[in-house]
Each structure stands twice: as structure tokens, then as C-alpha cells.
Amino acid sequence: MTLTLHQLLFRTFHAQNNVLQPLREELGLGRGQPKMLTYLADHGPSSQGAMANHFDIDPAAVSRMAETLSQNGFLTRTEDEGDRRSKRLELTAKGQNAAEIWKERCASMESRMLDGFSEEEKSELVRLLNRLYLNVRNGGLERG
Q1: Contact between 99 and 23 (Cβ < 8 Å)
Q2: Mean pLDDT score across all residues of the chain
Q3: What is the model's pTM?
Q4: With the C-alpha atoms ordered 71, 65, 53, 19, is the resulting torsion angle positive or negative?
Q5: Which of 108, 38, 109, 100 is nearest to 69 (CA)?
Q6: Which of 2, 69, 102, 129 is most buried, with most CB under 10 Å away?
Q7: HTH marR-type domain location, by residue (predicted)?
């Protein structure tokens, strides 16, 4: 049986998620929260809107995750100086530590996933996945 591209992407995502889930739980993070921490670790303090745009998710979802992360001591939420309706998110020491642990484990996972790939193949895979993403994002999918 030959799997479709969609099935292969789905299986790969779930296999990776299954390996990373115990760490996520150990760190006390919910689904989607590690990506917020690593974004802030890489980009510094950011608005919720910028994060929603970066991840292509609803701003309300970012707000809900940020509220939980704030309550659990991973980040702080302050009013954005330019827009009182907008919140600025910044990692706490606990959030920075969790982000670093997560990034290290993801780098290890990536190394394992790409075992046996040449540098050229790795670059090509990244290029093709970016192209797939942009095709979906820019073209959308017809609903029906």
C-alpha cells in the first residue's frame, strides 16, 4: 500500500509528537505551548498578534495559551506600550529554561529524523517543505 503525501506528513508529525510528549508533560506544558516558548526565546519579547501571525493561528488561541503560560510562571504578559489592547509576552527564567530544554530535545529529534541524509538532501527537504507550506498558506484550500 502506497501512502499519500498527506498521510506521510500526518504520520511523521504524530510519530514526532509521540516521542516529544513525555518531555512536554515533564515540563508542565500543554499542546502548542512549546512553540510559543521557543518563539520568544528566539525572537525576544513579542506581541500576541505577531505570534498568531507567525504560527497562522487565531489570536484568541495565542491569548489563551499565554494566559495559561503566565499563570504557570513561564512568561509575563504586559500591556503593549503602543496599544493597550495588545499584550506583550516575555519569558521568565522558568520559561527560558523550558525553551532551552525543548530546543535541545528537538535538535536531537531532528538529527535522528535526518540520519543518513546528505547535506544536499537536508537542504532540499527544507526547501520543499517551505514550498508546500507557502502553497497551502497562500492558496488556501477550497471548502466544500
Answers
A1: no
A2: 91
A3: 0.85
A4: positive
A5: 38
A6: 69
A7: 2-134
